[in-house]
Input
Amino acid sequence: AQKITQTQPGMFVQEKEAVTLDCTYDTSDPSYGLFWYKQPSSGEMIFLIYQGSYDQQNATEGRYSLNFQKARKSANLVISASQLGDSAMYFCAMREGNYQLIWGAGTKLIIKP
Amino acid sequence: GAGVSQSPRYKVAKRGQDVALRCDPISGHVSLFWYQQALGQGPEFLTYFQNEAQLDKSGLPSDRFFAERPEGSVSTLKIQRTQQEDSAVYLCASSLGGSQPQHFGDGTRLSIL
Output
């Protein structure tokens, strides 16, 4: 069974609109972490935001926020006021145990001018 | 810069040749990870080091793959007798600790002819 599911293979969004990228996860471990990474076409993997399973508040980093719904096991990434430079692949990943990351298949986001 | 540095950026080798990929992590980062990323997919875990100790090599696909980090800093991923299926992007990441966010290099794009 998939442990990380990103149901949107691709998305087109108009510049300046907000966008939500979906991520659901599956784990029985009470302690885990959720990460979002951005991978532009140039290939580098850029860390965006982190949410710990015990964190009470949703994580925010600038224009990025993580909509963490623990009971539903979802950790959606919200990008506010999208920009052309946001066009990239976005990966959701989960840390189970001490270090290993399990990755989703990614969502390709294209921002239209 | 102060980020993770990988070299070479691109590597083309003939089937059967040996290759060595280098990773220079962020200074002070104890944990180092290698991943393999096929086109259009998320990264797949290969191996994990804490300082010079290789704590997990469960993701290495065969005994042709070997990784080392002899002084707890720079790491080398070696692939012997390369095969076409080894063609992929190899990503290196480092972090302050195993559970902390991982910071990635630009990757090495390996093509086996």
About this structure: Chain A has a mean pLDDT of 94.
